[in-house]
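REQUEST FORM: STRUCTURE PREDICTION
Request ID: SP-0412
Submitted by: Lab K.M.
Chain count: 1
Length (residues): 128
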Amino acid sequence: MTTKILALTDALGNLVRFRLMPGNRYDSIEVPPLIDNVEFGGLIADKAFDSNALVAELNERGARIVISQHPARALKLKIDHETYKWRHLIENFFCKLKEFKRIALRACKTDQSFQPMIHLAAAVINSR
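STATUS: Completed
RESULT:
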């Protein structure tokens, strides 16, 4: 069994929130609880998060949508490609997170012990 980490970072690439989810679950399903009660001006994400429900919620919030489009999308959304380049910050965060062996190898057996390890690693990353 695999585990996915769905993370929300700020504009500097620092962890704001995260959720653990099973590896066989669609990423976009856990986004609404992740962004609940968080104010932001825009969301940058890859095509795994391209869903009509998420786009509708972001439009309702007035947030800028910078999500890479799934090739099968009928109505293409116009995205700012210069802003999309900043997605590398979340990728950099995950690369730094995977430097911690306990996280990369999922050494903790339960979610209750794995979540604090992610918080601790994020604090160390933020302090660098």
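NOTES: The two ends are 32 Å apart (CA to CA).
Reviewed by: T.R.
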